[in-house]
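In keeping with the milestone schedule agreed at the kick-off meeting, the structural modelling team has produced records for the first pair of proteins. Each record is given below as a sequence line and a structure-token line. The laboratory manager (R.T.) confirmed that both were archived under the project's standard naming scheme.
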Amino acid sequence: MLNLQYVETLLAVLATGSFHAAGRRLGLSQPTVSQHVRKLETALRVTLVERDPAGCRPTPQGRALLPHAEALIRAGRRAEEAVAGNRLAIGASGNIGTFLMPEILRRYGDTGAAPADAEISTNTHLLARLEAGEIDVALLEWWEGRSGLVARVWHREPLVVIVDPSHRWARQARVTPQDLTNASLLAGEPGSGTGRVLREALGAVGASFRVDRQLGSTEAVKRAVRAGLGISIVMACSVRDEVGNGVLVALPVEGAELAKSLYAAHRDPLPDTARASGFLHVLTAAVGC
């Protein structure tokens, strides 16, 4: 088992380029810094630091350790904060973070709780961060079981077809599954789970959809649809402003309940003292946002 203090000392040596400067940074004597690095090298049975007149550099083994060492220190700080119960880190997938998270954070702040740290990333990256203990709660657009993690649906967000106001469907109240057969769609962030929802809800029609362009984000999709480059299917909350301003038209699909289940995932069990418990309570009450 690696000693976190020794790991932190190694990082200081590599960041400052010298044992003396690392000691000043950490408030340690130079012999103590040398001892920490030597003990870490002994534990790993490799040399981690090269010394030359230009300063200290990592060996190949030291470079290989570096990202893991940084992650260990982050995890150690998160563990201290979790025990103290004085910090909350939330991760949200792209659409949730952009279109739903601001209102959720406002409502959480209204409870008098200290502000939460928030980040937006992909589902896959957030799950990795959650498993590593670097975030407390992940708000996800799809869920696959992970050992040590649990998730529950906190909201079902309707999906709508969006077209520009000049499109032939723009004057319709809705579209039919037949209208969408073999449709060519503009897609946003890959891996958001929308395709899975469409296949499950629309069967063969959903399976027939083709992605004409993968644009990387819902914002890019909305601009492309407004420019008349195609149609898309998005979360209704993501186009509320554009529909209200008349620059996009949102259409439900007749006879189909198109909605995406949104999940809140966390480690299992969740400590009784965790601030995440209070956030989850607010989250389930904020589904109207």
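The second protein of the pair:
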Amino acid sequence: MMATLIFLALVLLGLFLALRPLWGPKEPFPEPPRREELLKELEVLREEVKNLEGEEKKLALARVVELERALEGWRPPEPRPFNPLPVALALGVVVLLGVGLWRYTLPRLPGETTVTQRAEARELKTLQDKAKRSGAVADLLAWGRKAYELKAFDQAAEAYLEVLKKDPRNVEAVRRVGILLFMSGRTEEAETFLQVAQHADPKAAEGWLFLGNIYFQKGQAQEAIAAWERYLEAGGEARERVEGLIAMAKAQAQGGRDGQTVYQARCAVCHGAEAQGAIGPKLKGNPILKTPEAVKEIVLKGRGQMPAVSLGEEELKALLDYLSRL
């Protein structure tokens, strides 16, 4: 907070100093006329003198003499000396503003999305550098865990794949690679990795959660229920959420086809039981729900990390109707 206030004070000071010359007094006298203007006036007077008489002619001739003398001693006005101070101050303000924006608002490191995450992003960069430098499994795991925590999934995948190259039996890496494969829509490969990982370490709750998600995506409700029950037995933290999913999966297995049932069966594992968001984005209040055709295309074809979801026409219609009322 203090650094932000200091930065704003410097910006205001720079603007004041840069604009100050514009507030100064104007020149007390106008610039002397240019030679071309004097010559033009002289030419006009000489023509007018021919038609004048008396006092008017004397005054005109006096003005002609005055102009001729002025032209004899005419010198071009000296240019004002260049004052670099306003320019330097303006550039300084621009630089300060750019540095301030870069330092206090713009994300610069992988995993950094807001100011509050800057410390974590720096830690991630430190862990990444250390892991790449040493190549040790322990360092790669530390990097992968932090990247996974910050949802820098590309880095997490890179770290865990490097672990598997050095230690193919590392259960944590196998499990996390399976989860990351699921997030990228490669469910068949993800299922294989997670089955291996859960067989080796059945006490890892997150593996059962995502394995249940895969079964759910495939429409295998009974297998999903069994996997989620193993998640609860392993002490998974999202107990209430998973209990709700199990209840909805059982309803689906009994033939429920209303929109909420379809949502809970096929969408809630990623978007939350109340559409509040989880692995996937928040759907409740999401503007895209106002465009059913776009939602339909995303559901059936997938997008980004979201895989395609195979739904019958009746299920899809019920789901779209339910989503439109969120």
